[in-house]
Amino acid sequence: MLMIGKNYKDLILARLAKVYLIVIFLFFNIIRFCIQELIPYKYKAEKRIRSNSFYPSFAKLIPDFDVIIKCQGCSAFRKKTVSGLCSLCSFYISAGWWDCLLNKNYTPSSEKNILDLKELIKLATKKIFGFDHLREGQLEAIEAYLNGKDTLVSIKTGGGKTLCYVICALIFEGITIVISPLKALIEDQKRELIQLGIPCASIYANTIQGRSEQEKIFEEIALGFTKILFITPKKLCLNREFQNFISNMYDKAKVRFVIDEAHCILNYSNFRESWKNLGILKKNWSTVPIMLLTATCTYKDAQDIRTSLEIQSTNFAMIRGSSFERKEITIEVYKRRDNRENFSNDLINLIKNHENGRIIIYCATQSGCDDLFATLQPLLPDKSLGVYHGGIGDEQRQIIISHWKDGKIQIMIGTNAFGMGVNSSDVYLVIHCVAPLNMSE
Ligand SMILES: [Zn+2]
């Protein structure tokens, strides 16, 4: 009886513990994601600004953050102008948007300007990017999107797609949510934008992002400071609380969407299931314009993307950059030899004929990548090889990407998950061991 009693007690305790854990889990989930009510976050952030202890969520991406002379308008970025402002605050002042400065005590020395849309675009381009002119396609894309069109922008890699959505995000009063396929890409973009002095943040579906970091992000959103928020499709499609947050912003007409690497919508089976669910954007928030960014896209692909997102043809603009024709690319097709040794010899010969620049080798599967890496590495002792695919952990993938960017990896073997948004200008040879699904890959 005693034993039964003890077991019974243990059972009760175990059940209580389970309930307790569920309650804790729900509590943390609510704390982490209940972001509909932004006002308390706003008060907290304003208090920090008043007490001069504002430490933005992206501070660690700004070198020497603790010792640099900071902008008097936001206390977040490095001072760039003689009037004590960063590029962004200087843009706000020149645009006549004095209210956008976090420091409400800052008194501009100039008169308040009122600019039209073209002048604002020109001003933002000069102040943030330092360019006097936009490239062909960029102005049309920016104007179409800011005028409320769902806009597909097809400009080759390195052609300035980032500029298009960043300028739009700065001119738009609210927050621009950028949906991007991979965490590694997002982190890379975020770093790039912080270097430009643009307040942005990223949140993920499954991540060990500390609570204090997430709180800071929502404080900055509540202040209207964050201009760009990066998310993965998974976060958008699966997290109901995040959808509520968007609905809140939608009710105030303060949200816009950008889909980076939009061709993933067509190839979602190669990436993540969530891509096919992006139709929720128009279903839930029908009047929010979407900007779609892609490097290469045929007319048919563009129409397929449009229909899969349920975008009306009457509200759709397709903008292509000038140099769409890729004369610099040569495509050669070889018969793949069945014999493993002959196949690797053929690859080695191709690699040795391209001593300049770096090389990407695509395989169809993760195990194919690992096998090829194991085969090629001993045959190329003077080259540094890397492997990149979905089977590698997040942390390791970040390290591989950063080694690729630093030039420490000369030959990358990967699935087609690698390459999106990598923006390397010194890749002179791309080998597909298996025929790609379509020519734009
Ligand atoms: Zn500033």
UniProtKB/TrEMBL annotation:
Output the GO biological process annotations, alphabetical, semicolon-separated. double-strand break repair via homologous recombination
Name the PROSITE patterns on file: HELICASE_ATP_BIND_1, HELICASE_CTER
Task: Cite the InterPro entries for this sequence.
Answer: DEAD/DEAH_box_helicase_dom, DNA_helicase_ATP-dep_RecQ, Helicase_ATP-bd, Helicase_C-like, P-loop_NTPase
Q: Name one Pfam family in it.
A: DEAD
List residues of the Helicase ATP-binding domain.
142-315
Entry-linked PANTHER family: DNA HELICASE RECQ FAMILY MEMBER (PTHR13710), RECQ-LIKE DNA HELICASE BLM (PTHR13710:SF153)
Q: What name goes with this protein?
A: DNA 3'-5' helicase
Lineage, highest ranks first: Eukaryota, Fungi, Fungi incertae sedis, Mucoromycota, Glomeromycotina
